[in-house]
Amino acid sequence: TPALLYVDETHTQVPISWSDLRRQVGALAAELRALGVTPGDRVSGYLPNIPQAVVAFLATAAVGGVWTS
């Protein structure tokens, strides 16, 4: 069972596995920490409804930040 199932503009279903999601969230969380994001900081994203928006939301939560879009 995929973690996410994304349907792109061509109506193709693109599954995202749990391991891929975990890897992407971990990588972005590390970058957010390197940029100085700390618990309680606000992180804002202007993104369409794509898998990267979910990754950004989860990575922000992983570092204790508050996500807004």
Protein model, in words:
The chain is α+β, with helices and mostly antiparallel strands. The chain has a single domain, classed as 3-Layer(aba) Sandwich (Rossmann fold), CATH 3.40.50.980. The protein has two helices and four strands. The strands form two sheets. It has a two-stranded antiparallel ribbon with strand order 1-2. Strands 3-4 form a two-stranded parallel ribbon. Strand 3, helix 2 and strand 4 form a beta-alpha-beta unit. Helix 1 packs across helix 2. It is globular. The termini are far apart. The mean pLDDT is 97.
Number of domains: 1
CATH architecture identity: 3-Layer(aba) Sandwich
First and last CA, distance: 27 Å
Question: What sort of overall outline do the alpha carbons produce when their principal axes are compared?
Answer: globular
Rg from Cα: 13 Å
CATH topology term? Rossmann fold
Number of strands: 4
State the name of the first-level CATH class. Alpha Beta
Task: Find the structural class using helix and strand composition.
Answer: alpha+beta
Strand order of the largest sheet: 1-2
Task: Describe the sheet with the most strands.
Answer: 2 strands, antiparallel
Tally of helical runs: 2
What is the share of helical residues?
40-55%
Would you tell me the overall average pLDDT? 97
Q: SSE string, helix = H, strand = E?
A: EEHEHE
Uncertain parts:
none
User: What percent strand?
Assistant: 15-25%
